[in-house]
Design a protein that fits this description.
Number of domains: 1
Order of helices and strands: HEEEEHEEHEHHHHEEEHHEH
Shape: globular
CATH superfamily: Bira Bifunctional Protein, Domain 2
Number of strands: 11
Radius of gyration: 20 Å
Largest sheet: 8 strands, mixed
CATH topology: BirA Bifunctional Protein, domain 2
Structural class: alpha+beta
Strand content: 15-25%
CATH class: Alpha Beta
Strand order of the largest sheet: 1-5-6-11-10-9-8-7
Length: 325
């Protein structure tokens, strides 16, 4: 039997994707935000231990180089910002290894934009405007805005800004999540990710956009520490019907601090015997030259399309997911 050659998504969803892209471009054109394009293939990659990446070999005689497929266009876009581009956006393919499932495909589409001169609350306002327009034909509830600390305490009774290994272990066992003890160990950030994904995230954004802000400082390698509270960073994540849609920051502009954070992540990668990565020295140089005050966010367009169409799986909105590519 010949393999099925047909796309996994309906033609109507292909049209909805085209409409979404057109509306996004109109939204940013009305605000004079410049559309840019940056390389998918690069000499360096992010250092985040939780992100797995793809590599390929570039054969340029007489030597061979390892190149990386980008997990996000963020670093290249920040180099454009430092060069004086002004506010910019990009609709780009991105790649993450080992990710496949109901909400994941190793190749996916990102919308990423940066607003020069915007604080994080101002960016959140613009995100709200964007979603209001995209979902104008649907009866969404009012957008929710809640701090990470408040929502974490609300659903777990644990304060995410105060790490108590004993309390976290007790909570894991009482919540029928005993594997968390082995997986997370004494890593505060891993505990928060694990508990949040299992006991908080599923309840966020029921028929509405939910913005969770002020993430604990141990979880944000690219966001600034809050001036109001050094225990948290100026970071926001977007959720709808329990699904994470996006991640945004008031961008870290301190080159020395950014380099130090990269080094710490590289040390973790080495300790955990994860694939070797390369710190982006061009990004560090761009930050040294001066990144303008700005806030930025990346939104997964495939998941956004799932919400717009009421689809239950990412395969339903992709023409050819990895299983049939």
């Amino acid at each position: 039997m010949l393999p099925d050659w047909r796309p996994s998504c309906a033609i109507e969803l292909m049209r909805l994707r085209a409409q979404l892209l057109a509306e996004l471009r109109q939204f940013f054109a009305e605000r004079s935000v410049l559309e840019v394009e940056t390389p998918i293939l690069s000499h360096s990659i992010g250092t985040d231990p939780q992100l797995a990446f793809f590599t390929t070999e570039y054969c340029l005689s007489p030597r061979q180089q390892t190149l990386f497929l980008q997990t996000s266009p963020e670093f290249a876009m920040k180099r454009l910002l430092a060069a004086g581009s002004g506010s910019i956006y990009q609709i780009s393919k991105a790649f993450r290894n080992g990710e496949s499932g109901r909400f994941h495909n190793p190749e996916f589409t990102l919308l990423e934009w940066y607003r020069v001169g915007f604080t994080l609350p101002q960016l959140m306002d613009e995100i709200d405007e964007l979603f209001a327009g995209l979902f104008s034909g649907q009866s969404l509830q009012e957008t929710q805005r809640v701090s990470y600390q408040d929502v974490f305490i609300s659903y777990t009774g644990l304060d995410p800004l105060v790490f108590s290994y004993q309390d976290y272990c007790v909570f894991a066992r009482e919540s029928q999540l005993p594997e968390a003890v082995t997986i997370c160990g004494y890593d505060h950030g891993m505990w928060l990710d694990f508990i949040f994904s299992h006991k908080v995230q599923p309840y966020l954004g029921e028929n509405s956009l939910c913005m969770v802000y002020d993430y604990p400082a141990c979880q944000s390698s690219l966001a600034r520490i809050s001036e109001a509270n050094e225990q948290v960073t100026d970071r926001v994540e977007l959720f709808m019907n329990g699904i994470e849609l996006g991640n945004g920051y008031y961008e870290l502009a301190d080159a020395k601090e950014q380099s130090s954070r990269f080094d710490k992540e590289l040390a973790i990668r080495k300790q955990e015997e994860l694939p070797v990565t390369v710190k982006d020295q061009r990004l560090i140089a761009a930050l040294e030259s001066g990144l303008p005050e700005c806030s930025g966010v990346a939104i997964g367009l495939d998941r956004l399309l799932m919400q717009l169409s009421g689809s239950s799986s990412i395969d339903e909105v992709l023409s050819f997911p990895i299983r049939c590519a």
